[in-house]
Amino acid sequence: MLNKKGRIYKLVLVGIVSASVILVRQNVEERKDRELKVRKGERGGYLRTSVNDAVKKGNSEVSRSEAEEVVRKVLKSYDVGEIIYRGKTLREGNEVIGVYSFEAIAEKDGESIWINISRDGIPVMMLNNRKVEFEARRYTEEEASENGKRFLEEIGFREMTEVGYETRENDIVVMYGREDKGIVVYEEEIKVKVNLSTGEIEGFDASEYIRRRRISLN
Asked: Do β-strands 160-168 and 123-128 pair in parallel, antiparallel, or remain unpaired?
């Protein structure tokens, strides 16, 4: 027979064990939920982590439908309807980036946006062929550069800093280099084209960045 003090101790012990079991179950359920999201295609390494990490880890090849989902995420701020698959190329070593190629059609005017996604799910390049009427500049070079950097961060390139730019009529092409602990690696470059009238991103090219990163990591 337990005395009163012993019964109280037993009740406290049971309460602690029960709380621990509930906590463990919660952690297990949270982990299962995260794994389910990954299986559902929310893994988009370039969105969840930086592209630098994705290249370093060597993501497994994504399917064509997964690559199309990446396209929609990259072009989420554009008025895009139909996305047409235009083929793929194979990767050859670190020099040739294997890609899925797509043509995205703007719902408003039917113009095309061409975009390539690497076979491991990383945005490689985009070219917006939509016609924009020439208008007075509303954005400075600095503001356009910030727009470009913000766009790169949104699609997963989060270590980039401006290293120069060129203005072409009403557009600006901004060059960004990867920054590593305060040191800019100029060879790992991404170019972003920004319209100085609208501030819209008209294109980007990350192929050199991806090639250089793969070479330096292998």
From this structure: unpaired
Whole-number Å distance between alpha carbons of 106 and 78: 8
**Side-chain half-sphere CA neighbours of 164 within 13 A:** 5
Q: In which region does residue 188 sit, left (phi positive, over 0), alpha (psi from -120 to 50) or beta (all else)?
A: beta
What is the C-alpha to C-alpha distance for residues 34 and 42, in angstroms, rounded to an integer?
9
Residue with tokens 């929310």: 42
The tokens for 46 are 């370039």
CA–CA gap between residue 33 and residue 82 (Å, rounded): 31
- How far does Cα 107 stand from its chain's mean position? 24
**pLDDT tens, position by position, 129-163:** 766 666 788 999 999 999 999 999 999 998 899 99
Adjacent-strand bridge partners of 189: 177
- Bridge-based pairing of strands 123-128 and 80-88 is unpaired
Say whether 143 sits in a helix, a strand or coil. Answer: helix
CA dihedral of 141, 143, 145, 151, whole degrees rounded to 10: -150
Per residue in 57-110, pLDDT tens? Answer: 455 789 999 999 999 999 988 889 999 999 998 766 555 688 999 999 988 778
| Contact status, residue 201 vs residue 148, Cβ threshold 8 Å | yes
Q: What does pTM read for this prediction?
A: 0.71
